[in-house]
Amino acid sequence: METRFVAEVGSNHNGDIRRALALIREAKAAGFDAVKFQMFEVRRLFHSSALDARPELLGREKMELPSWWLPELSAQAFDAGIRLGLSAFDVSAVAVAHDFIDFWKISSYDLMRTDIPRAISRQAKKPVVASTGMSSMSNCLEARYRLHALGLVDLTFLHCLSAYPAEPDACNLAAIDAMQKELGHPVGWSDHTASVEVIERAVWRWRSAMVEMHVDLDDGEGMESGAHCWSMRRAAFVIERTRGTVPDMLARSSPIDGDGKKRPQLCEQAEAEWCADDSDGLRPLRMTREKLHAHP
Questions:
Q1: Domain limits at 221?
Q2: Which secondary structure element, helix H or strand E, spans residue 131, and what is its range?
């Protein structure tokens, strides 16, 4: 089965719908099979304690994707012949976006939440892609159980290292194979390394069902563009490369492969504290909020 490539646009649209539409067109031209946006409202994403302690988070309001963009994004994706996905970070976005997208994404920060999958399950069933950064195998199994219980069975899980940027030698790509055997669903890789070698090994060595790559236009001026982000030109290069002849050297082991045991990595520890709490769906976790309150 050929690997499916997803262009994770994030907020690199910079609040400009013309740039968002260009990202869709350029993702198709680069060889991506799908393009994915994020939909959130900062004041529904973070708990008030986090906004009080870190008021700079309010600056992310300019990164929000307005709901009125959805019909135009959907039409542009349809015209370009590319699938459109969305990470919905609160339940209100699910109802608003349902008719305009082809698949849902559950972020690593939201993997253990129950409200978003429940909202998705109330709509007509669409495929769900779930990232698993900062998670153990038991977390992944629990997430699969919850999704199945809601009737969400068209699933793809993404192994992920939630560090920005991530170091290639911490990627533990062999976990892709271990997860597929345990979860019984296609498993892919969500990349934060921007390393050609990591993508090649994920596809050629570990037969990743899907590869998600954070991308920006070649001008590199996106709000989230950084060391973890691919330009469209570099992304097009690596996609074309991985669809060519598999080199013999990929059969050899590499530190990038790791030991295959699915577990949080040390470099993810700080990010893990900023996962959403299932009690109210807000970031960060309650124990982190208590720390912020004690040490503002």
A1: 4-294
A2: strand 128-131
Q: Total domain count for the chain?
A: 1
Beta carbons of 48 and 282 less than 8 angstroms apart: no
C-alpha distance from residue 185 to each of 166, 180, 188, 281, 296 (Å): 25, 6, 10, 26, 43
- CA gap 7, 190 in Å, rounded: 10
39 Cβ contact partners less than 8 Å away, ≥ 6 residues apart = 64, 65, 67, 86, 87, 88, 89, 93, 96, 97
pTM higher than the cut 0.85: yes
Provide the CATH number for the domain around residue 107: 3.20.20.70
The burial of 36, by beta-carbon neighbours within 10 Å (0-12 exposed, 13-18 middle, 19 or more buried), is given as: buried
CA atoms of 73 and 58, how far apart (whole Å): 25
For residue range 237-272, list pLDDT tens digits in order: 999 999 887 777 677 789 999 999 999 999 999 999
Those residues whose C-beta lies under 8 Å from the C-beta of residue 274, and which sit 6 or more positions away, are: 109, 283, 284, 285, 288
Residue 138 CB neighbours (<10 A): 11
Long-range contacts of 270-275 (CB under 8 A, 24+ apart): 271/109, 271/133, 271/134, 271/162, 271/163, 271/164, 272/134, 272/162, 274/109, 275/108, 275/109, 275/110, 275/111, 275/112, 275/134
Q: How many other C-beta atoms can be found within 10 angstroms of the C-beta atom of residue 32?
A: 26
